[in-house]
Amino acid sequence: MAPFLRITLTAYEMGALPTMDSTPICAIRIKECVSTERGRTLVQKKSTMFPDWGSCFDAHIYEGRVIEVILMKSTEPLAKATMNVSALTERCRVSKNKNNSEFWMDLHPSGRIQITLQYFVEDTDIDNPKQSVRSPPQDGVLTLNKRRGAVKQPKIHAIKKHEFIATFFHQPTFCSVCKDFVWGFNKQGYRCRQCNAAIHKKCIEKIIYKCTKTATNSRDTMFQRERFNVDVPHRFKTYNYKSPTFCDHCGSLLWGLFKQGLKCDDCSMNVHSACEKKVANLCGVDQKMLAEVLSLIAQDSNKKQVESNDNGPEIGIYQDRSSISEPSAGGKDSSVRLDPPPGPTPQPCLHLTMNHLLFHKVLGKGSFGKVMLAELKGKGIFFAVKALKKDVVLMDDDIECTMVEKRVLSLAWNNPFLTHLYSTFQTR
């Protein structure tokens, strides 16, 4: 990473310019030196910035880079000046304030602004990272140490007091629910941060016991006792395993030459000595089968409720009298007829694909994908298309964040000042 300058606009003086009722706006344009067929020219690659007075912005130090400062009244430019980044860097290096400099810069045709500079360089000492973080600045140069402690916290799936985190298992691991092998690449399954239980991603909805770090007289034991009348503690005893065996709770291998773990005399459950206090009192209970039965019971109850609602229409107290037919001329009452109100005519939906769009250029890049400028063929309508890398989204377990972003953009359709979501699709 190249060294950069941190520039702060602190004050201004209008000089001979007419006085203003409001504070003027300062526009910053950073231009790069590009070689073309006609020679070198300055090109602005980034959008114009409008920093507030007293705020700062960063500018990396590249050869030929120029910063243009424009003092504006609303959209009308009043005065401007051009600064060379290399000259500003040299001013910081020769200053007596340890790479900090503060000076007034004259504007054309009149006025001036006060600028504060700070010079930073990237610390490239990777052989001894601890020394590079804690060592004082060398030669009076301030340094930014890597990402300055920025850490992305893993996403937590809270299920029945468990705190499951997508985990990459470095050794063969078995699921504590279905007892099958946890296979796959990258992050194969989930592991609870409190009780260390390892499960498949597909088995996260089949958890029936709550996590309380310990199973002795816990709320989980009371819950199972009241609902299912299940309160059968395990009878663990130290056991010598003659073949490789895996823990039925955390899923990892039972290490050691003798007395590797504990085994239940009734259900033959194998656990580590450290996992004994974290196992729920479910001796002889098949958690997977119990979860499937509970799901079937819930489906049957929902089905019966739907059937009861379909037996006949419910007539409200404030029903419209016009919807009820009049008695027939023969004197017999005709049946009540409820005419549903006419609904809107459904319009065909346009399903966009890659073939409907013509891509022109890349507008921006990020860690999840790109934003490209595209034109709808035959319509002359331009869109900003955000293309996401599905493998990166799945690897970081950010599917919910993507769906939340889609939902927010959908809700903002009626607001003329927000970005509107036109369509979503996926290629493969």
Automatic annotation (TrEMBL):
Catalyzed chemical reaction(s): L-seryl-[protein] + ATP = O-phospho-L-seryl-[protein] + ADP + H(+); L-threonyl-[protein] + ATP = O-phospho-L-threonyl-[protein] + ADP + H(+)
Matching SUPFAM superfamilies: C2 domain (Calcium/lipid-binding domain, CaLB), Cysteine-rich domain, Protein kinase-like (PK-like)
GO molecular-function term, one example from the UniProt record: diacylglycerol-dependent serine/threonine kinase activity
Binding site for ATP: 386
EC number(s) given by UniProt: 2.7.11.13
Protein kinase domain location: 357-428
Classification via InterPro entries: C1-like_sf (IPR046349), C2_domain_sf (IPR035892), DAG/PE-bd (IPR020454), Kinase-like_dom_sf (IPR011009), PKC_DAG/PE (IPR002219), Prot_kinase_dom (IPR000719), Protein_kinase_ATP_BS (IPR017441)
Broad enzyme group: transferase
GO biological process: intracellular signal transduction; phospholipase C-activating G protein-coupled receptor signaling pathway
Annotated ranges, domain Phorbol-ester/DAG-type: 161-211, 233-283
Keyword line: ATP-binding, Kinase, Metal-binding, Nucleotide-binding, Phosphoprotein, Repeat, Serine/threonine-protein kinase, Transferase, Zinc, Zinc-finger
Any Pfam family: C1_1
GO cellular component terms, A-Z: cytosol; membrane
Region Disordered, residue ranges: 302-345
Family: Belongs to the protein kinase superfamily. AGC Ser/Thr protein kinase family. PKC subfamily.
Protein's name according to its UniProt entry: protein kinase C
Native organism: Crenichthys baileyi (White River springfish)
